Amino acid sequence: MTRLLGLAAVAILAFGLSAVALTSAGPAWSHATLVSSSPADGEQVPVPPSRVSATFNEPMQTQFAAMTLIGPDGGQYGAGEPTVDDTVISVAVRPGGPAGDYTANYRATSADGHVVSGSWTFRVLAAAPTTDNPAPTVPPDTPAPTDTTGGGDTSADGGTPVWPFVAVATAVVAAGALWAVRRQS
């Protein structure tokens, strides 16, 4: 009977520690979300902006950030590499874009290691006045990101996923339970 009570106590302790580990790590499991964009989703702007940006609810890693701007003609109107400034990812816009619907696509890794991607659209009412209008370049076979978020476990800039800590805590509790049971027998 004592052995059964000891085993029950260990099981309750293991369950309690697992519950504490899972509930206390809740905020670390949240994903970064897009909170605003410039231009805003669905906004109509008089001429193409000089830059598009996405603002998130938490800091983003500078590595692996990607942002593209696809024009109404299917051309790529993003100029250069995207920049990351804390919670904002942005990319310059090539001058001379035509009027029409533009789609801004992003894919980035938040500080906690989760990959987020998505897109938004805006409409340019008139082409930018320019003396030369270079033909847009279309990247070959480049799929556009989708509006999904996923759990990535890469963390190259200080972000650490929580799951390894939960796994270690579970293993320690299981080893302690096994040791307690074997010690009593």
TrEMBL record:
Any one GO CC term of this protein is:
periplasmic space
* CopC domain location: 31-124
**Where would you find this protein in the cell?**
Cell envelope
Q: Where is the composition biased (Low complexity)?
A: 144-158
What's any GO biological process attached to this entry? Answer: copper ion transport
* Pfam family membership, one: CopC
Top-level taxon of the source organism: Bacteria
Secretion signal span: 1-21
Residue ranges crossing the lipid bilayer per the database entry:
162-181
Classification via Gene3D superfamilies: 2.60.40.1220
Recorded GO molecular functions are: copper ion binding
Show the InterPro entries listed in the entry.
CopC/D (IPR032694), CopC_dom (IPR007348), Cu-Rt/internalin_Ig-like (IPR014755), Ig_E-set (IPR014756)
**Where is the major localization of this protein?**
other
Region annotation Disordered: where it falls in the sequence? 129-158
This protein's record includes keyword Membrane? yes
**Record keywords:** Copper, Membrane, Metal-binding, Signal, Transmembrane, Transmembrane helix
Name of the molecule in the record: Copper resistance protein C
